[in-house]
């Protein structure tokens, strides 16, 4: 019966590969289950439990073509649940992708959600600066050459869950790892992104969720969808790991096209506090082009001595693999981040988060994460904090 | 090619296990397709066809951890479609679960939807007394010791599809099978449940769907979500099987905290008939703490002689396995249930169902079920009946 | 470890079969990713990218029973995402199906979405004449006898995503392939369909999307859901292939029960132009029974010489299998269609599409399709055109 069988394997997933390597398929998934407890201040969010991710991932290859079809059931509707959904073709030491995937920008964004150091990505990702634009539809290429990781994408300004529109964008990223040994990695990177609204586009928005997920949001900048405005960003990345220690920093500047008026009421509704500048009684508050700056530094120390590996394919760090020598047979990691975002054109429009964390890795697939996030919104004066806990399994 | 292959098997599902037993994964599913025909009375529900369940189930283990990720596409939105979604760790002859699963209460609830004797569970389950609270998010343990099956869970008052809120609850169940041989099983059980509303909680509600699914509902008790009230229940279970005969009964008392007023109009809207007690012209109808009582007895006779097996893991009965000797090569079963629920504080607030049924098991995976449900709502006087038919396959 | 293993195989999918053939299961899927660019006229649709299909398909068999559970994540909600969802039993050289599947009518409808010659099906399918009624819930049989393909279905007028209602319908189709060799196929076919609205039924509607998907729609006929009206259709099919050339035509007449009034405003809202006949100032525009006629002819020429295979199971043509000798190692196909639909009772209520296309088949699973659609709506005078592009992978 097994004479003609292809090879079936499991590491918690289902995987079958043909003997000749021409075909393969796998079904994996992930569950991230969170508990959020807020220490409220001016804002008073609801403390609760929440599935952060519950995702199935189908992958496969057919000769030199491949596919990814990923659905996250936390999306609510299945269109919002699309994650990576594309077909790809091998090309120049990399692959051309067609469909929905992440534009190549922000080292934090390139990091898999299974491999995050903290519960959430910093503001320089689609959690903040590229709010709601984590996945876009289009065509791109990504590949690795020597110690360089490159990625380019041209896209329609939508994912499967957002309105059909004629906005377009493009993003590219270059990562360089001049040193990358078993014990030591040094990473430098840069990316640029350009987005142009057009018919039926949604607003381009930068937001700071300064007290963790499901906590309060501070709007940082807004380019209306119906006025054809642009948002442009440029970023620098610096990161490295040495033995059990790891550090990562990004600095990004964004320019959000403005040149519109908001009524004083609308301004307060959107930004959470009255305009700190003169508003014309007839025309309202003038919003000029907005410069947004965000940077973070994060790091960790593997208490059990493991080393965080670097993924050349992603140009980003993965998680350390537990040696199994720590308490309860797993690995332990202390983590820290300082993250801040400001609008340089509106006085005091700035928010920041300080996060301390502890991660326990039961094995390569299962982890628990604890974060204490000290939130600070200079614009509204809110100082809500969050204690966040995650139980995670990926397979 | 197959030298390194793990073991792949199918019983209609996909399953792969690693040679060393450290890893496994499977993909199963179920389709339950129903037809409902109503004999209307005061109520006149729409007769139609309906998918009761269309579900995929991913399961796997990674060393002493395991996961379940189950999605029912009848949910409409994917958050409502979450069923069992948790990670688990072996612990004390059982497992600790973290995520979404069923609180341990009600023998009928513990029975798999693939193994039901009737089309629907009785009122003592989330079909009635725990309306909308079949799955909750939290942490718990379940295990088997000798002839005892135990389960405990502490939970947030939500599942993935209901609003984020700060309500909490806890439930525990103990089942005892002092006799459990190939031919004879005797089961006794008890469970308690406590639920406490808090910020943003939905109402705690008991309802009787006395004429089957998609038929009319009679509200039995309501503890408003925004007043921080409690609902507490205690249940007794008695069941057994001997040869082809099986009997099961549960008796549950629930206390739903009240102490609020409804206007006469609202009372009639909610309960379907005018208040049968004095309502204050200014304040309305006073709803004090409500005692709800529900009990059922159900049984079946396998006409083809098979014996219903008892699952120690669940502390509940499974289906009989068809011997293949019956008409059309399958097994045949006659079924019966009497089910009733009442509010002891509001006169005549009582509903009951008498159900007669016939099941045909084509094989272990495929069955057809026919139910005739005679519904009776004492409060409104409605006597709608339902003829329900199910075609079911599980794999 | 592999001693007891069933057979695992992949052609981009996951598949396991038991050694004795009693069990099997597979997990496949498809991604169709489209780009639409409109040359607008009176109508001005949004040019954008869109996932046309992103679908997972579970199939399996358990002895002489089988199942299909298919979910398309483009549905938005999971009920709208149901495609084939049924259990089936081998019967008379075919199978009885119970659940949701396509009523047997229209050769174009019977063609798999992975095998379409053009981006969209012609008007004689659920893309037009049976608008929104591609899948229905019920029971049916389909099978092959000699050179005949037959299918019958009795159904409730709903799929999983449409309202529960008491409407019913039935459809049947007979296809005959008197000649069917490796190089030459001749196909004749006929089908009839009857649908009867009842309590809670949605309107029965015929529409012409004459400028491709996401373009403008011209309403052709409407039988209101709440009046209990009927829609009846009868169709003739003629098709054939010879070497690299293929031709297919269908002619369908539909009768949509009317006998109702629309206000002049409602008429213009629904049909996009003022009523071209006298409307009573008090009663409005009388809509009598409506006769709808639609026909198309489509064809293709495989530039690389392959032959389109005929599927006896479907009674419809499949795609040609690329020989690998063409440019870029694939197959190339030139395509053409003329498609038209008219309401014989309302003057000038007619729309048509002329489509030219080019398909590139990279391999059996991956293709790219280009269509230029020249749309023409005689009723409104609109002449919007569409350039459509699809990247497709099925596994």
Summarize the topology.
The structure is a homotrimer of 395-residue chains.
Chain A: E1 7-9, E2 14-17, E3 23-39, E4 48-62, E5 65-72, E6 82-91, E7 94-101, H1 107-110, E8 136-145, E9 148-156, E10 168-180, E11 184-196, E12 204-208, E13 218-223, E14 230-242, E15 245-256, E16 260-262, H2 264-271, E17 285-287, E18 290-302, E19 308-311, E20 316-320, E21 331-343, E22 350-361, E23 366-377, E24 385-394
Antiparallel strand pairs in A: 1-2, 2-3, 3-4, 3-24, 4-5, 5-6, 6-7, 7-8, 8-9, 9-10, 10-11, 11-14, 12-13, 14-15, 15-18, 16-17, 18-21, 19-20, 21-22, 22-23, 23-24
Descriptive overview:
The structure is a homotrimer of 395-residue chains. By secondary structure, chain A is mostly beta strands. Chain A has a single domain (24-55, 103-394), classed as Porin (Beta Barrel), CATH 2.40.160.10. Helices cover 3% and strands 56% of the residues of chain A. Chain A has helices at 107-110, 264-271, and strands at residues 7-9, 14-17, 23-39, 48-62, 65-72, 82-91, 94-101, 136-145, 148-156, 168-180, 184-196, 204-208, 218-223, 230-242, 245-256, 260-262, 285-287, 290-302, 308-311, 316-320, 331-343, 350-361, 366-377, 385-394. In chain A, the strands form 4 sheets. The first copy, chain A, has a 16-stranded antiparallel β-barrel with strand order 3-4-5-6-7-8-9-10-11-14-15-18-21-22-23-24. Chain A has a two-stranded antiparallel ribbon with strand order 12-13. Chain A is globular. Chains A and B meet through strand 1, strand 2, strand 3, strand 4 and strand 24 of A and strand 2, strand 3, strand 4, strand 5 and strand 6 of B.
């Amino acid at each position: 019966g097994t004479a003609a069988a292809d090879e079936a394997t499991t590491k918690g997933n289902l995987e079958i590969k043909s003997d000749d390597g021409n075909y393969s398929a796998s079904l994996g998934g992930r569950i991230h289950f969170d508990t959020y407890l807020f220490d409220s201040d001016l804002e008073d969010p609801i403390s609760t439990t929440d599935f952060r991710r519950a995702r199935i991932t189908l992958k496969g290859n057919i000769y030199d073509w491949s596919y990814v079809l990923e659905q996250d059931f936390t999306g609510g509707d299945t269109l919002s649940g699309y994650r990576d959904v594309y077909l790809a073709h091998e090309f120049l030491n990399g692959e051309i992708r067609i469909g929905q995937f992440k534009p190549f920008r922000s080292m934090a964004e390139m990091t898999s959600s299974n491999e995050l150091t903290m519960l959430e990505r910093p503001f320089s990702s689609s959690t903040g600066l590229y709010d709601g634009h984590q996945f876009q539809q289009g065509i791109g290429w990504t590949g690795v050459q020597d110690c360089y990781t490159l990625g380019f994408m041209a896209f329609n300004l939508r994912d499967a869950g957002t309105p059909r529109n004629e906005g377009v964008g493009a993003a590219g990223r270059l990562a360089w790892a001049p040193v990358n040994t078993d014990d030591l990695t040094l990473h430098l990177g840069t990316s640029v992104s350009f987005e142009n609204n057009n018919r039926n586009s949604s607003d381009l928005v930068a937001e700071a969720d300064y007290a963790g997920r499901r906590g309060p949001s501070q709007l940082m900048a807004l380019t209306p969808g119906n006025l054809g405005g642009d948002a442009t960003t440029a970023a620098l990345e610096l990161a490295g790991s040495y033995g059990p220690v790891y550090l990562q920093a990004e600095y990004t500047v964004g320019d959000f096209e403005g040149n519109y008026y908001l009524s004083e009421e609308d301004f307060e509704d959107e930004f959470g506090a009255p305009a700190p500048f003169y508003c014309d009684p007839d025309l309202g508050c003038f919003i000029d082009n907005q410069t947004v700056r965000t940077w973070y530094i994060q790091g960790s120390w593997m208490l059990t001595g493991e080393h965080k590996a670097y993924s050349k394919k992603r140009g980003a760090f993965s998680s350390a693999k537990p040696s199994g020598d720590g308490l309860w047979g797993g690995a332990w990691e202390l983590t820290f981040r300082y993250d801040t975002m400001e609008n340089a054109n509106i006085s005091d429009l700035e928010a920041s988060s300080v996060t301390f964390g502890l991660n326990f890795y039961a094995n390569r697939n299962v982890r628990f994460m604890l974060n204490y996030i000290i939130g600070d919104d200079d614009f509204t004066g809110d100082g809500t904090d969050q204690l966040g806990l995650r139980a995670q399994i990926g397979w």
